[in-house]
Amino acid sequence: MSTIPANAATQSAEPVGMLPEDDATALSFLYDMPAWGMSLLLHVLIIVVLATCTYTIMSEPEVELTAEIPMEEIRQEEYVISSEATDVLGSQSDMNIVGPSMAAARVAGLDNHREEVVRVQDFINPRLAVYETLPTPNEAEQIQTIDLTGSSEHAGGTDGAIDRITQEIAASLRENKTLVVWLFDESLSLEKRREAIAKRFESIYQQLGLLESDVQDALKTGIIGYGQNVHVLQKEPTSDLPELLNAVRSIENDMSGQENLFAAISESLRVFLPVKKRTRSNMMLIVVTDERGDDFDNMEEIIGRCARSGVKAYVIGNTSIFGRQEGYVHFEWEFEGEQFSEDIPVDQGPETPMAEGLKLPFWRASARPLERMSSGFGAYTLARLCAETGGIFFVADEAVGEKFDPIIMRRYAPDYRSAKVYMRELQTNAAKAALIQAAQFSLLDSNDIPVPETVFDAPDDNALRAAITEAQKPLATLDYYLATMGTELEKGEKDRAKLDT
Hints:
Number of strands: 10
CATH class of the domain at 139-414: Alpha Beta
Number of helices: 16
Structural class: alpha/beta
CATH superfamily of the domain at 139-414: von Willebrand factor, type A domain
Low-confidence stretches: 1-19, 108-118
Shape: elongated
């Protein structure tokens, strides 16, 4: 039995391909290295390899530029002294001649002077450029581009309103054939305005070119008068100017005091709307009045019919007194050779659906014009008619009291929404309702609050005491009304912050 050394078995078990210990350590280090380390090592190795690469570039000599400035040859002056005597001594000569140099200088100077004269003459006589002037647009084209539909325009009285109406008709004619229907208030207070318009009728249609045959076919006109009843004065639309003038001048004064305006508009739609549809024309209603119309309850129905039919309504009327329903019309008449005038109260209507101004008395004479202060706008019924149909309210006459700048008042234009919307807002806002209640309470006759006396006839103390006691009664009455209105206004204090108009 043989014996084998222990180390012999160990050596035989060692693999043949076993690496040395140093190499194994290096491989183990690389195996344990993270990915970023391997990437870094690889990039460093690439950079080292690239650094060992060289490329030889042959350098070429640079191009040199040399600039030389040749020296200019300077000719030296030569002076020759002549020993010969001369009989010309220049300015010191006894003869009236000069030396050659002076003569040459004078001749040269004259030539230069002559050239300068010619040059100056050419310069101071330039040709003026004539610029071609561009034609300016006419007034009609300028007005056409301004949208004023639904507004109250201060055109400068009746004549100015007629001129503006002429421009509106001309603008409509440029678009299409036009049918114009004039509605004249037959009240006595409007007699002068009707006559003024009749005098301008010829100039109106002359400006529109109605006397030309091509325009006569494009523009037709109808005439209606209204008061208590409606009268169709020109039933068949025509372009015959004398016939139109006769129709306007045939209007008789209506003494009933009623103006059924919306009944007249309804009749005009019944008579002339078929003509509009048959001729496919534009249709304009031009209302001439100084009141709002007694039948304004039919306003919404008439507005709807006009809007659906494409009929525009224009009004030549008066402004309303600020916050008041009652207005005044200055009326003049003659009796037995004497002239009389008076301010007649009429129902011009407020500029809002309901009167919103407190009707309080002014006792001082200087404050009386405040009772007739102009609102700057037409009556609500007429202004809404224009606004909803695309027309314009032209102010022909304004209240005689205090007034404001119309341009400033544009920012305070009334709300021309329907009366239903207005009443609904009164129900939802206590502040608006309180104002209307107080305003309605203050609609008193002029005799309800008399003017107090400030001058007393006092022959003795007893008479003075009695007169002063009697003068306090109007103040007591006023105090009662003011206290009642104050109570109504206090009810709306909680909703004042919610007001938007």
